[in-house]
Specification:
It contains 7 helices and 5 strands. By secondary structure, the protein is α+β, with helices and mostly antiparallel strands. Among the domains are: 42 residues; 136 residues, 2-Layer Sandwich (60s Ribosomal Protein L30, Chain: A), CATH 3.30.1330.60. A 5-stranded mixed β-sheet has the order 1-2-5-3-4. A hairpin with a 2-residue loop joins strand 1 and strand 2. Helix 5 packs across helix 6. It is rod-shaped, with a radius of gyration of 54 Å. The termini are far apart. The N terminus and C terminus are likely disordered.
Length: 265
């Protein structure tokens, strides 16, 4: 009977639920799990905080890298500008050196001509001037022509022969023969209409004579200026005599002139 009663109690105990020990164990396990969950939550919070910090640092690094990139781009741009400026400066320097070389060559030519013309200058048959950076050999009317005439006198031919001998030695230059007069109108009996015609006729006469003395015709031109370019006052006889003249102008070479090709369309 007792054994049967024990079995019944045991069955009741099982049917009624877990024992206190089981509950205590379950509660302990729950508490342990809750503790682990709290630790995990705490660690997760720390990780999220660290992640936020890392993202902030990453954002700062990105900003700095961008700034550095802009600085590098700026430095590269500045370097390119400096290189361009340096190239332009070097080109300008080369141009200046070339101009200096040309200037020195012109000076050497002028000095040589002055030396060759020295005896003629001292005798008063001509003078040499620099006008607008051009060398001008000036011969007075009295040496070359009679008053109001365009035919060369004998003394004029002799003088021009000596001048031509010097000019033929300058192989890379062109010359313009320029006729000039005073402002006194020509007389009615003159075969020339006015001083324009007289100055031009005299220039052509000198140019033609120079070609007979060996100066190539393609290096000589002639022009008449009448009284438009006086070198002295026409108010005095002496001044008018200075204005009546023939000039042999040494023209600049094309490579001595500014390059205007950029202005063409």
């Amino acid at each position: 009977m007792l054994g049967r009663t024990t079995l019944v109690l045991t069955a009741l105990a099982i049917a009624c639920g877990p024992s206190q020990a089981d509950l205590d164990a379950a509660n302990a396990r729950i508490a342990e799990l809750q503790g682990q969950l709290g630790d995990a939550t705490s660690r997760n919070g720390d990780l999220e905080s660290r992640l936020a910090s890392i993202e902030a640092q990453n954002g700062e690094l990105v900003s700095r890298l961008r700034a550095l990139g802009q600085e590098v781009e700026g430095l590269e741009g500045e370097r390119s500008n400096l290189q361009s400026t340096l190239a332009e400066t070097q080109r300008a320097l080369e141009e200046l050196r070339e101009r200096e070389r040309q200037a020195q060559a012109r000076i050497a030519t002028f000095r040589n001509l002055l030396s060759r013309f020295r005896s003629m200058i001292e005798s008063g048959r001509l003078r040499v001037r620099i006008v607008r950076n051009r060398m001008v050999v000036e011969l007075p009317e009295g040496i070359l022509f009679d008053s109001g005439q365009a035919a060369l006198k004998q003394d004029g031919q002799t003088t021009l022969t000596e001048v031509a001998q010097v000019l033929t030695e300058i192989g890379d230059r062109e010359f313009q023969i320029a006729g000039h007069t005073d402002n006194i109108p020509l007389g009615r009996r003159s075969r020339f209409a006015d001083n324009w015609e007289l100055s031009a006729a005299r220039a052509v006469t000198v140019a033609r004579f120079m070609t007979t003395q060996g100066v190539p015709a393609n290096r000589i031109s002639a022009a008449g200026y009448a009284d438009t370019q006086p070198v002295s006052s026409n108010e005095s006889a002496e001044g008018r005599a200075q204005n009546r003249r023939i000039e042999i102008v040494m023209l600049p070479n094309l490579d001595e002139l500014p390059d205007l090709s950029a202005l063409t369309e």
